[in-house]
Amino acid sequence: MKKRKPQYNPHRGDQVRAKKHLGQHFLKDENVASKIADTLSYSGYNKVLEIGPGMGVLTKYLLQKDAEIHVIEIDTESVEYLKENYPQLENRIHEKDFLKFDLSEIFGEEQLAIIGNFPYNISSQIVFKMLEIREQIPEFSGMFQKEVAKRICEKAGSKTYGILSVLVQAFYEAEYLFTVPPSVFNPPPKVDSGVLKLTRKPDFHLKCNEKLFFRVVKMAFNQRRKTLRNSLKSLNLPDNLREDAIFDFRPEQLSFQQFIDLTLKIEPYAV
């Protein structure tokens, strides 16, 4: 007979089992957790949302800050562990999927920071979701797979510069902070991790059509080996516009500001 896995019992003080399908790698290094908690300024807002707290190693240090800490966690075992071990989080543990949840149900239109040790398998999606609600998010920091964190902060001209680099840097100052080895996790991942911080720019409203900007950036990088003249062909732009020198470039050669300039050129003709 196949043995059943023991179920989590909060009264035994068990540790939560990391679940592969959720991309869980629990941080176990107290020093790293403290350093991540210190990446936020806790200024200009009084609420912080931690995504995927697991067993609360980072949460513990966030609770020492002068802010109202909320956590959002999809794993039922982790939720039970947090309720048992962090009673000060009462009514601020949200058993929800961040990617599908409307944060206005909790926070209304309030400003808040987002932080976390993000599951690698959805980390890029978390950033895209954050960009959708950027009006509310003045600061964002946390741990990613190192190559993803580096890509977000990369500048034009690099082979790793891409959609996330442009979209994030149009609205936020992006800073790669430090690298974290696999040994600080349980179970250890197969790659290094990297911690970054995003600080929303004082003037984060673009001077172009923002929906068109997102569309142009994604279209360009979806065919990144082609020049913009070819990758944006489906926009059916007039020939005289397509003769502009900017269309001679490939997408990784353009800074976010040049993509804004490009969008402004396209606006009068885009359908």
Automatic annotation (TrEMBL):
Enzyme class of the recorded protein, top EC level: transferase
Alphabetized UniProt keyword annotations: Cytoplasm, Methyltransferase, RNA-binding, rRNA processing, S-adenosyl-L-methionine, Transferase
GO cellular component, one term: cytosol
SMART domains: rADc
Residue intervals of the Ribosomal RNA adenine methylase transferase N-terminal domain: 32-202
Family annotation (PROSITE patterns): RRNA_A_DIMETH, SAM_RNA_A_N6_MT
EC number per UniProt: 2.1.1.182
Top-level taxon: Bacteria
Listed InterPro entries: KsgA/Erm (IPR001737), rRNA_Ade_diMease-like_C (IPR023165), rRNA_Ade_Mease_Trfase_CS (IPR020596), rRNA_Ade_methylase_Trfase_N (IPR020598), rRNA_adenine_dimethylase (IPR011530), SAM-dependent_MTases_sf (IPR029063)
Intracellular or extracellular location(s): Cytoplasm
A GO MF label: 16S rRNA (adenine(1518)-N(6)/adenine(1519)-N(6))-dimethyltransferase activity
Catalytic activity, as annotated: adenosine(1518)/adenosine(1519) in 16S rRNA + 4 S-adenosyl-L-methionine = N(6)-dimethyladenosine(1518)/N(6)-dimethyladenosine(1519) in 16S rRNA + 4 S-adenosyl-L-homocysteine + 4 H(+)
Residue numbers binding S-adenosyl-L-methionine: 25, 27, 52, 73, 97, 117
Keyword field contains NADP: no
Described function: Specifically dimethylates two adjacent adenosines (A1518 and A1519) in the loop of a conserved hairpin near the 3'-end of 16S rRNA in the 30S particle. May play a critical role in biogenesis of 30S subunits.
Family per similarity comment: Belongs to the class I-like SAM-binding methyltransferase superfamily. rRNA adenine N(6)-methyltransferase family. RsmA subfamily.
The protein's name: Ribosomal RNA small subunit methyltransferase A
